[in-house]
Amino acid sequence: xxxxxxxxxxxxxxxxxxxxxxxxxxxxxxxxxxxxxxxxxxxxxxxxxxxxxxxxxxxxxxxxxxxxxxxxxxxxxxxxxxxxxxxxxxxxxxxxxxxxxxxxxxxxxxxxxxxxxxxxxxxxxxxxxxxxxxxxxxxxxxxxxxxxxxxxxxxxxxxxxxxxxxxxxxxxxxxxxxxxxxxxxx
Length: 186
What we know:
Blueprint: H1 3-12, H2 16-38, H3 41-57, H4 68-86, H5 97-103, H6 110-123, H7 128-139, H8 144-151, H9 155-175
Helix pairs in contact: 1-2, 2-3, 2-4, 2-7, 3-4, 7-9, 8-9
């Protein structure tokens, strides 16, 4: 039995250690996905907790079709969509510098981190439907087929959103002073 099957079995038996293992393995990925989609690390923390609570409560609904990771990301995307519908997003502002530090990885140099920060801020300016597919495709390394299954859309729709999202992102980056090589104009 692989570890994920063991976690599922333990959770189905009401054993919280299965949930703990699941959170240890996928917690950071769920949080980063939520943070990139909804632009607020505090809400991302809330959604991350909701994802694992929902996974624990609905573990019997997981049939083993697809990956456990994909199932968790689907719950994450659905909860982010729900939060987006309920909130007045026009009142939210982009991450402050302190909030962005929570999402940074410590293994990057200052120049690479500056590029990453700028790219994240640019992605967050995109409409949600494009931001969603870009995050799943580039940050979660999912194939368009997997994204289509996750979002309940056709693969053609996902490819279209990805293409339009990339064009919009390019415009945002160019407006911010970036050239085709991804370097800031001097």
